[in-house]
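We treat protein structure as text, and this decision shapes the records that our systems exchange. We quote a single record here, exactly as it is kept in our systems:
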Amino acid sequence: MDHDRTQSPQKMTLPALQEQARRGSKIVMVTAYDAPSAALAEAAGIEIILVGDSAGTTVLGLDSTVAVTLDEMLIFTRAAARGARRALIVADMPLGSYQISEASAVENAIRFVKESGADAVKLEGAGRTLSRIGAILDAGIPVMGHIGLTPQSATLLGGYKAQGRTAASGRRLVDEAKALERAGCFSLVLEAIPPPVAARITETIGIPTFGIGAGPACSGQVLVWHDLLGLIPGQKPRFVKTYADLAGVIRAALDEYVNDVRRGTFPAEPHTYGMPEAERQRFEEQPSPRTAKTEVPRA
């Protein structure tokens, strides 16, 4: 669907999101961690910007998302919220920010809303997470759930592997999705699960689902900014489709910049600032501090 950007932007709301899913109109979500990226995503008509803790690996150079801190996520979320006015801003709550207690979960969720401008937060898993979701909702903050491959608990899952590949584990994911809906989540991320399981979840629950490696039957899709734009060379997860090779474009631009500087062709006249001719002459007539004669004090 083409988006008419001549109209005044309207903030995406949860009821509007629900209605879009009900109509069968696919919803698009993307991660973004700064203002320019969020602005570009919004200009493309993307409805939801997820400030993911994937920033740990894509931006901070970490080996996983586990070490990402709450303060770092607040900075990323604040930056993204400055860049997007219409899209729904969802902040990933990092490991340790909601697992300890309901009280700390609520306190940290409130920080995301008050300090960084998030519209909602995202939590991984079910189980004990359900009580945290209820407490955060009681504070008036919407929650997005996340099941399947949950990176914060990847070690417990046996690594970064697809989930729900047996009948029993697939059924368990359906039950988790239903439990998260009952807990009050407004939507779910389904990561790295077989399409039949994702389709069953999507048709079973009444809230939107977002697939990332979960097939086309979900209400919408989400991809990581750096993956879809080809900003990080190397092997990518099976579910990634790379839409551009920006790493190649950036490298070519940097190579050209290096060559221009070393050849002396940059900066050229168009990249410099002028000086009135009279002022230039006065300036050049002034003796240089290195050559000006100085009076030697007499003894």
The chain has one domain: 14-250.
